[in-house]
TrEMBL record:
This is Uncharacterized protein.
Amino acid sequence: MDHSWPVELLKRQYLQLIDPERLELPCKKLLRMPLIQARIFDEILDESALIYLPPERYKSRVLKRLIKALEEAIEDPEEDEISDDISACLAQSMAQPLPSASSAAQQKSYVTYTAPVTNPNAPRITTLEAPSLLASSGTTGFRTWEAALHLGSYLVSEDGNHHVADQRIIELGAGTGFLSILCAKHLGARHVLATDGSLEVVTDIKVNLDLNELEEGDLIKTSVLRWGHALIGCPADCRREELSYDVAIGADVTYDIKSMPALIATMRDLFELYPKLKVLIAATRRNEETLQFFLAACETNGFETERLDFSMPKANDQTGFFHPTSTPIQLSLITNQGARIDPFSLQLE
């Protein structure tokens, strides 16, 4: 019997910093096995086995949950034992001073995302981000949101990969650069431009490119791109190079109704520069009114919108790019039909 998958699944969740209470631990029968405990230590808890380590506070919480599960799995105290390596790991963790919960929440951490495929060479992306950042805390580009993970799952799938393979991609509101890195490093994009309206966010994207060995060459570039501003002469304008972008992607870019006219204006400018452009938008449906406003604005401007049928797997069925399923995420494919209306004429009610 192959016991590698339960440990691999736990490792993927651990490296993505999934809440310790939501980690899917191996069943009790497996946890009692010395081989499984040894693999958990060797592949997950032994720091020499990992390049980018989770925060110490997070590791301590995971160890406490794991030890409790191991204790509950014991049936015969004389036969079943808890690994000395795991016990020592917990003792060492408890001996270290840890930052407070509030302080830890403000710190950036390494987060490693594994694509939702079960083979051992599944694509992985590591970012330095603020995973505890709240949606209401101003600049939201310092963490990877669930809409980006869902769109990433779609692009990795057979249904979605053709949108990226051998295509020139521009990302709007790239945030941590997760999607741009995925397209450039793992999905065969010809070129990627990761853009965001915040210079500080774009600076952080460059750090994440370095973490994923993409800092050199012309495969992926970064740029500040403020929606509603002219694209002529900016890095998104490739006309002088006789090139064009094929696909624009954006995840969680429709959450603020006040930014909608500027986003629509930028989309319209992109369609003018690249008439055959396809736009893929992933929208978390926190506020139905906001999403409907965006879709109505697209229709008003003559854009054709198609809802993509790609369902969110249940939390217990996810094998990578783990994300909550409590709030629906809608994927839309938007193309240009040629009509043009000034998006700033749209009045916010």
